[in-house]
Specification:
Shape: elongated
Helix content: 10-25%
Number of strands: 13
Oligomer: single chain
Radius of gyration: 22 Å
Strand content: over 45%
Strand order of the largest sheet: 1-2-3-4-5-10-11-13
Largest sheet: 8 strands, antiparallel, barrel
Order of helices and strands: HEEEEEEEEHEEEEHE
Structural class: alpha+beta
Length: about 220
């Protein structure tokens, strides 16, 4: 399911709101900007469907290499919200279609790259690029406050605190466009693969994506 299809589904739910207990929530947080629809399943239990997206850039040093990272966040969620005490506190769980990924590009320092402790002239290396990707289907566990389908129509606030358990990331880093000698280019390829292993080890600590967001809801 892509972003356009997800938004279309949410708009259809909004159009049907006058015939069902439905609330729409606009949110923002670590998963980006989001739009969710909540539907009552039974007393104390809501189903929630939503999409979140955000792109931004940052940088990170791994081993001897400085990387430019373009983070592309895209998640589609199908969750159940359970209100154990009948109030605003909720326990949430469900599945996330996880399109989060990072595009990485090595950045030279002083006209050179250092891969696996070997120094290369940036003018002959070409480009060293790759990606960090995560498991496509991942469970979500969390807590929150606010029931957008509480008695009465109108506006309300909500919060989510939880984790997307996406497992160990997959990394892919490779060089292209090397114009040095064949021997140097072959050594470069091996050293970049060694850096790919270092990047994978560094990314292995990020087995869960933290979710913290606040939302503004309207019940129809």
């Amino acid at each position: 399911m892509n972003c356009k299809h997800s938004l279309a589904a949410l708009l259809l739910l909004g159009a049907a709101a006058s015939h069902a207990q439905v609330a729409l929530t606009a949110s923002g947080g670590t998963t980006g900007a989001g739009l969710h629809a909540s539907v009552r399943v039974q007393s104390g239990l809501n189903a929630r469907f939503g999409v979140n997206a955000l792109n931004y850039s940052t940088n990170r040093a791994v081993s001897d290499v400085e990387y430019d990272l373009k983070l592309r966040l895209m998640t589609v969620e199908a969750l159940l919200d359970y209100f154990p005490a009948g109030g605003s506190f909720r326990l949430s769980g469900g599945l996330v279609h996880n399109g989060n990924k990072a595009e990485v590009a090595a950045r030279p320092a002083g006209g050179t790259f250092t891969f696996n402790n070997n120094v290369y002239d940036a003018a002959t290396v070409g480009t060293v690029e790759g990606s960090v990707k995560f498991r496509t289907l991942a469970p979500y566990l969390g807590i929150g406050w606010g029931n957008p389908l509480a008695a009465g129509k109108g506006w309300s606030f909500s919060t989510d605190v939880g984790v997307i358990l996406h497992g160990s990331p997959r990394t892919n880093l490779a060089s292209s466009g090397c114009t040095a000698s064949a021997e140097v280019c072959a050594r470069l390829a091996n050293d970049v693969e060694a850096e790919n292993q270092a990047l994978r080890e560094d990314a292995r600590d990020f087995k869960a994506f933290p979710v913290i967001r606040v939302g503004l809801s309207y019940r129809f």
